[in-house]
TrEMBL record:
<feature type="region of interest" description="Disordered">
    <location>
        <begin position="243"/>
        <end position="277"/>
    </location>
</feature>
<protein>
    <recommendedName>
        <fullName>citrate synthase (unknown stereospecificity)</fullName>
        <ecNumber>2.3.3.16</ecNumber>
    </recommendedName>
</protein>
<dbReference type="InterPro" id="IPR016142">
    <property type="entry name" value="Citrate_synth-like_lrg_a-sub"/>
</dbReference>
<dbReference type="InterPro" id="IPR036969">
    <property type="entry name" value="Citrate_synthase_sf"/>
</dbReference>
<dbReference type="InterPro" id="IPR016143">
    <property type="entry name" value="Citrate_synth-like_sm_a-sub"/>
</dbReference>
<keyword id="KW-0012">Acyltransferase</keyword>
<keyword id="KW-0808">Transferase</keyword>
<comment type="pathway">
    <text>Carbohydrate metabolism; tricarboxylic acid cycle.</text>
</comment>
<dbReference type="InterPro" id="IPR002020">
    <property type="entry name" value="Citrate_synthase"/>
</dbReference>
<dbReference type="Pfam" id="PF00285">
    <property type="entry name" value="Citrate_synt"/>
</dbReference>
<dbReference type="GO" id="GO:0036440">
    <property type="term" value="F:citrate synthase activity"/>
</dbReference>
<comment type="similarity">
    <text>Belongs to the citrate synthase family.</text>
</comment>
Amino acid sequence: MSRYEPATLEQVSDWWATAVTRIAPGEVEYRGIPVQELIGQTDLVTGMWLLVRGDRPTPGQAALLQAAIVAAFDHGPQAPSIAVARMAVTCGIGINNAMASAVNTLGDSHGGAGQQCVALLDEVVALTGTGVTAEAAALEVTDRWRQRSRYLPGFGHRFHPRDPRRDPLLGLVAEAVETGVVAGHHLSAALAVEARLDPVPMNIDGATAVIYAELGFEPELARGFFVLSRSVGILAHAWEERQSGRRNKGPIPPSLLPTFLAPAPLDPAAPGPGRHR
C-alpha cells in the first residue's frame, strides 16, 4: 500500500493498537480485566504493575514495589523538582502545569540515577553469570564506569552521610530473598559495589534500583517509577505553596540579590564590537 493511499478502517483501528486498555461503550478493561473487578479490590501499586507489566504481582513483589515508591516520595525544596513546583504554582498557572514543570526537571542528573544504577547492577550481574565473583565483577564494572564519570549512580549523597532510606529498603529486599520472592543477584551486586566504594554508602537511588532490578524491571522503567513516586511530593508541595498566597516566588528571598559578574573593562585598542580585554 502506498503511503498516500486511503487507509482502511482496520488500518486506522490498528494505528493505536494496544494491549493495555480496551474501551467500548459501557466497558473499560485494564489488561483484559473489567475495571469494575479492580475498583475497591486492587491497590495502587498492584494496579501500576498490572498496567505496566501485564500481569499481577505476588503480595511480596507488590510490597517491595510499594516500599520503593513510598521511599522516594519527597526530599524537600532542596530538590530542584520540588523547588520548581513551588515557584511555578505562584506564577498563576494550574497545579497540573506546576507538576509538569517539576517533572520535566527530572533528567539524567536529577532523577536519573536509579535508571543508571539498574544498568550498572545489570552489568555486574551479567559478569558474575560468567563465573566471575561479585567482588571482581564490581571492581571491573565500577572502574569502567569511572572512566566516563567520577560519579557512580546510586552511591553517596550530597546531603546525608548515610541515607536513612538505605537500610530499611535493603532489609526488605534481604527478607524477600530469604522467602524466595526475589533471587537476590542484584542485591549481592549492589553490596559488592558498595564494599568496593567503602566508605561511600548506597543512597535512595541505589536501594530502589536494587528493588526495581530484583523485580525484573528494565532500567528505564526505574526512572518512570521514580517520576510517579516523586510526583506525589511535587503535588503536596505545589498545593502547600498554593495555600501561602504568595505570587511570583523566586528562587531566593527578594531581600537578597544574586552576585553580579561584571564584564571585563573595554579595551579601546582591541578590534571588534565588544573590545573586551
